[in-house]
Amino acid sequence: MTTWKFTFACTRAEADLFTDDVPQLADFDPPPVVMTSEPDESKPDSWQLDVYTVEHPSLMLIETVSALLPSAGGAYTLVELDDEDWVTMSQAGLDPVEAGRFFVHTAADADTLPAGRIGLQIEAGLAFGTGQHATTTGCLLTLDALDVVPKNALDLGTGTAILALAVVKTWPEALVTASDIDPVAIRVSRENTEVNMVNIGDAKGEISLHVADGLEDAALAARGPFDLVVANILAGPLIEMAPSIAAALAPGGTLILAGLLAGQADAVEAAYRDCGITPVSRTVIGEWPTLRLLNA
C-alpha cells in the first residue's frame, strides 16, 4: 500500500499547535498522522511538520494544514513512501502513553514497562490508534475505570486493536471481538495481537478479528449480544449506527464511544438516548470527550 507524506517548514509556535489534538483535522477520514520535529537544534525557531496519509492527500487537507502554518506561505513538499519507510519514520519520537493501568509503547520502549501496569505494544503504522490520540487515551481511561467485568466485548472500528488488546489483557476470561471496515486495519490488528502475545481466535482470552461493514455483518451478529461495546470512530457514523449498536448491546451492557468533538457530544448522546441507552459519564481530554453509556 502507498503512503504519502507532505512536509511544511514552520515556527516552533506553529508546531506547538500540533502537540495536542487538532480539531480542524478531526473529520478527515482516514485520519492523518501528524508529527513535528526540530531538524537543526542551532535554529530553535525552525521546525518541521510532517503529515502522513494512506491516500493521496486531498487539496482540502493540505489547505487545512497550511492555514495553521502561515509562516510556510503555502509551500510544502509531497513524497510517496513504501510501507517500511512509513513505519520507520512514523515511529520516531513516539513516547509511551500512560492511561490508568495501561502503558502504551512501541518496541523501542518495551523494556520500560512500569511494574504493575498492562503493556500494550503498538507500532505506528497504517491504521489509526497508536495511543497517542486523546480519543484512544480517553477510551483506555474509561476502560480502566469500569466497575464491571465484561464477558463478551466488541471493539467496533478497531484500527490497531489497541482497545481489544486492553480488554483481553484486563479481563482474560472475556470473549473479545474486533472489527473494522478496512482490511488493512485488520491486518495491522493481527500483527499487533501477535506481538502482544495474544492468540487470535474465538475462545475466551483470544481476539476474534473480522473485516465487517457495521453490525449487520453475520459474523458479528453471531458473536453478540455484547455486554461491552467500544467504538472510537467519528460522530457521524456513531449517530448513524446508533440503532444497530444499541440493538447489539446486551441488557445492562456498557457502551464506550469516542472520536467526537466536545460540541458533538450532546447530539451523539441524544441519538443513543432515543434508542434506550442512558448516558452515564464523560471523560474529556482537550476537545475530545469519551462517552460512557449504559443499556439500563
From TrEMBL:
Output this protein's name. Answer: Ribosomal protein L11 methyltransferase
Indicate whether Cytoplasm appears among the record's keywords.
Answer: yes
Q: Which reaction does it catalyse?
A: L-lysyl-[protein] + 3 S-adenosyl-L-methionine = N(6),N(6),N(6)-trimethyl-L-lysyl-[protein] + 3 S-adenosyl-L-homocysteine + 3 H(+)
Q: Which residues bind S-adenosyl-L-methionine?
A: 136, 157, 180, 232
Gene name for this UniProt entry: prmA
Keyword check for Nucleotide-binding, yes or no. no
Q: Which InterPro entries match?
A: Ribosomal_L11_MeTrfase_PrmA, Ribosomal_PrmA_MeTrfase, SAM-dependent_MTases_sf
Q: Which family does it belong to?
A: Belongs to the methyltransferase superfamily. PrmA family.
List the coiled-coil residues. Answer: none
The UniProt record lists the EC number as: 2.1.1.-
GO: which molecular function terms?
A: protein methyltransferase activity
What the entry lists under Pfam families is as follows:
PrmA
Uppermost EC category:
transferase
> Main localization of the protein?
cytoplasm
Would you tell me the Gene Ontology cellular component terms?
cytoplasm; ribosome
Q: Which locations, inside or outside the cell, does it occupy?
A: Cytoplasm
